[in-house]
Inverse folding.
């Protein structure tokens, strides 16, 4: 019998590469362009990539949802997470910023009780404590991550935690429907925001035009592959491999931005990843 990871693993690895590529491209662009414009391009591009895929996989009724209110709030949480994350990356290194964003599952543990009525287990609390301990290694005086913009990355992780928890509140919708609304809401809200700020008056070089287009391509393909991986294998098998995103982020940070985490920062990043992976492995045994 074929192991489920045989088909899921290439998808989750490629998804991590797409998301790291998205983050690196966004970090490069926000240095010279408005944050709203960069995030807008990411969502509109995702819509253009993911909508035909959702239509092909889910049929003409792919857009119908049983939970419109939850889909709206969930998608707004994702928009908030993206704005905060890209805003933080304007000032902070890519690898360390990505590590802080991976605190989202730990925040999800803290909020799962009030939102979903779940009682976190001892292992989940230990994982959360481990994640915050890793942050202490990263956010310390004298490091590049010791910066007010770090608060934006923490807000991104919190918003992403609510996004993850609310995803579990739309059980009647297909993954393709959920992916469609993730892009649709962001596109509408950000189009209005950019128009209100008169942000559509800009000029781009050929290279910048390509980079803006790549934002949507990376986002659409990344989410498509992530969904595909979780459809082909149990979440407990797939989830540990999402942390490969950290490797891609570190490589991009060095190759594109000439930055490598120092020793203690690397330890903090390792603690955050280990806390997340250990929790997933524990949950799988349960």
């Amino acid at each position: 019998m074929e192991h489920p990871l045989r088909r899921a693993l290439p998808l989750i690895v490629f998804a991590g590469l797409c998301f790291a590529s998205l983050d690196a491209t966004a970090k490069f662009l926000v240095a010279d362009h408005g944050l709203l414009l960069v995030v807008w391009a990411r969502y509109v591009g995702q819509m253009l990539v993911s909508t035909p895929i959702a239509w092909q996989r889910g049929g003409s009724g792919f857009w119908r949802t049983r939970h419109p209110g939850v889909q709206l709030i969930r998608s707004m949480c994702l928009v908030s997470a993206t704005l905060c994350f890209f805003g933080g990356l304007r000032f902070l290194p890519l690898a360390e910023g990505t590590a802080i964003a991976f605190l989202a599952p730990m925040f999800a543990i803290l909020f799962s009780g009030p939102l979903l009525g779940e009682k976190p287990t001892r292992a989940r609390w230990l994982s959360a404590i481990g994640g915050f301990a890793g942050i202490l290694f990263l956010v310390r005086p004298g490091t590049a991550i010791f910066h007010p913009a770090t608060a934006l990355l923490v807000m991104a992780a919190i918003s992403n935690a609510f996004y993850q928890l609310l995803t579990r509140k739309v059980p009647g919708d297909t993954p393709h429907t959920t992916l469609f609304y993730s892009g649709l809401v962001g596109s509408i809200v950000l189009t209005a925001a950019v128009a209100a700020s008169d942000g559509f008056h800009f000029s781009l070089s050929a290279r910048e035009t390509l980079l803006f287009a790549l934002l949507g391509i990376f986002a659409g393909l990344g989410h498509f592959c992530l969904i595909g991986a979780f459809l082909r294998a149990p979440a407990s098998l797939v989830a540990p491999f999402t942390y490969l995103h950290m490797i891609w982020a570190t490589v991009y940070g060095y190759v594109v931005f000439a930055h490598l985490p120092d020793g203690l920062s690397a330890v903090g990043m390792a603690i955050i990843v280990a806390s997340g992976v250990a929790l997933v492995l524990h949950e799988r045994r349960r």
